[in-house]
Amino acid sequence: MIDKLTEKIRNTHAPIVVGLDPMMDYVPEHILKAAFQEYGETLEGAAEAIWQFNKEIVDCTFDLIPAVKPQIAMYEQFGVPGLQAFQKTVEYCHKKDLIVIGDIKRGDIGSTSAAYATGHLGTVKIGSRSYHPFGEDFATVNPYLGTDGIKPFVDVCKKEKKGLFILVKTSNPSSGEFQDKLIDGRPLYELVGEKVAQWGADCMGERYSYIGAVVGATYPEMGRILRKIMPKSFILVPGYGAQGGTGADLVHFFNEDGLGAIVNSSRGIIAAYKQEAYAKFGAECFAEASRAAVEAMAKDIDHALQTAK
Amino acid sequence: MIDKLTEKIRNTHAPIVVGLDPMMDYVPEHILKAAFQEYGETLEGAAEAIWQFNKEIVDCTFDLIPAVKPQIAMYEQFGVPGLQAFQKTVEYCHKKDLIVIGDIKRGDIGSTSAAYATGHLGTVKIGSRSYHPFGEDFATVNPYLGTDGIKPFVDVCKKEKKGLFILVKTSNPSSGEFQDKLIDGRPLYELVGEKVAQWGADCMGERYSYIGAVVGATYPEMGRILRKIMPKSFILVPGYGAQGGTGADLVHFFNEDGLGAIVNSSRGIIAAYKQEAYAKFGAECFAEASRAAVEAMAKDIDHALQTAK
What we know:
The first copy, chain A, is of the alpha/beta class. Chain A has 13 helices and twelve strands.
């Protein structure tokens, strides 16, 4: 799957992942109205609204991008119907040949981590039959519990040719509270980065490992160091756009081959129509605004990478 | 909710939480057969089997215990139908007046943590109506992302009178990889423990905060130190029984008032009928074996606490 990701990034010239994190505030009135008319003001109605919202954005952007990253929390808040919308979104994106990164940030130990890995990336056996419950291609994982928590995910990835992005340095302001603490003079995130490189060493695709890392765009200097600590790991970079990261901040997350990083934008793309720059599209044409925002983001990153050469 | 928990512990004389983590291996043949007959060897069939399994265990133990802790991963591995079984389990336990600790180990930032908190502990507004999607009473949370990740959960808890157990020192062998690293001479888990005490300071019930911590029974010495660092925080203690912790290990997790800790056992109770000690019950009477295992566990802990006095 990591080879498919690098190939798709090469073909689209866009190391971009669109974060499908549909907040109700983002969903235009006409979609909400239609969904509530059909299902009422219920969890099912909300789930239908976010699914229709996603579908239009995917239809308008799939040819420009390699991957999407649905944030499962935004679906889980609507209970079981919300998770049905999550699953439908994953399936639909696969039909459009997009790679799906499940932003699930799960992490537990032993058989519990194995159960999460099975549910999201693997195959569950029931009697004589097999199922792929949620069926994402990659998942984000939390490392706080150590190797016991990660290994069951890695095992499933090896078997299924899927991949992980392990949280190393997150994009939020308080990420330093624990992640930046110095241990023998070095911050915790560097130790976690070293572990990611170790865990990924025997999980190699053609050039990159399928065990990657999450490092926030808001910390470019740390990105530069982590890039060197994990040379074979793809870095998923959140925090571009709405959280404050710019194209120029991203340069050090990439290797010299122009690969090795994929940058997420959620609100900046899926709610583009609410920004002044794309207001002309209006709520009716929200998905076309998203397409324009993807094009602008690809150009911004490409410009930054060319300038840095 | 923390006051209800302490009251129920006092009434039952059992600081015990039964981990409803139904692996398919635990479910007796006759339950599997009936479920597959009705729904086929499908995700729905597996979900029905674990729900029926849970129901019988709850029916046979609810009067002895204050709380249950369903591990959501064991449900999530069966996709949407599995999560329906999770929700049904939560609802059923509430009918039996049990406190439900959702072992979800979620953790993200800002609006994403808020969405998880809403889905599991809170109220989601859809148009003019309100819903409580999964409706647990407590949730376990991962602290790796710092205060930004925890605060949205705390906010929901304040509003809804619910609670958290934040991972501090987990019970697994490799938990020390990051959690034990020394920062200015002190392990990371102590720093996290201090933060838990801070986060919990303005979330007080009668005697205890509703912001608690998770500390593994397998690390009793660390439990003793953390007990002092977080005197007002309830500690959820996994690792008893199957993972190796014994009654004597637990003493230091409690305060002098005999409260402040609640001990989880999953496999040791729900799959008790598979142990030699309870084999006489047989697979047909698996839930009665669970009842006997709860009684033995309560006795073991009570004996340890009395001996320590």
